[in-house]
Amino acid sequence: MMSRHSAPLAVRRAAILLMALTQGVAGYLPRGRAQGSAAPEAAPAPQRMIAAHPALAKAPRRTRTVRGHVGDPINVAFIGSDREFHHALARAGWYAADPITLDTSVRIAADVVLRKPYPHAPVSDLYVWGRKQDLAFEQPVGNSPKQRHHVRFWRSAEVDDQGEPLWLGAATFDERVELSRTTGGVTHKIAPAVDRERDKLLGDTNAVGLLDGYYWVDRFHPELRGVNGGGDPFHTDGRLAVGVITLTR
Question: Which helix (H) or strand (E) segment is 15 a member of?
């Protein structure tokens, strides 16, 4: 069977478009095309159908805290191999977060106070599919880890017919820090407009030319307002963004 990366680009785009039309998703945009721009040129019929990723069928809508409380909303996903995924996030300018240790916890607290940059600052653990995030990435804002764009990702156990997993993510913006009333450590408070972070991450990866395309899963979230495990309110349009990664060769 022809792999997704060996197929002609027009064929792969057409296959993704057919998937969008038949699987109840909306808004497919080929690489490099902005919303509101002209429709893409006609493409030949695909040699095979690309079905929606099997892990999407039962994908969780919300994360969970270590105590089991409902956490941040799931709002972004990528389909691609481990190598493709790491490469895409790095090229898009996102830094891998350090693990939580005593040293990194002390450093982030000190750097917030001293207003020193820490682009690999750790993030707290949230849980999907019964486990904490597999990876987390961030973009610092200013000279302090007090504010940052960040996203946690969980790798699906299921793979698609190309053997590639779904990377399910929760993207939010940390707007300030506080001392946790439960742990006594430093904790971040998220900004309520979580869709902005979803759109930024998708835009960053698309801008560096590493997406074949992306599409939206409408009504992914039945409730458009909520509160995360730390008590921070958020609002969303309810859509999940799914990017299909490819490596430029």
Answer: helix 9-22
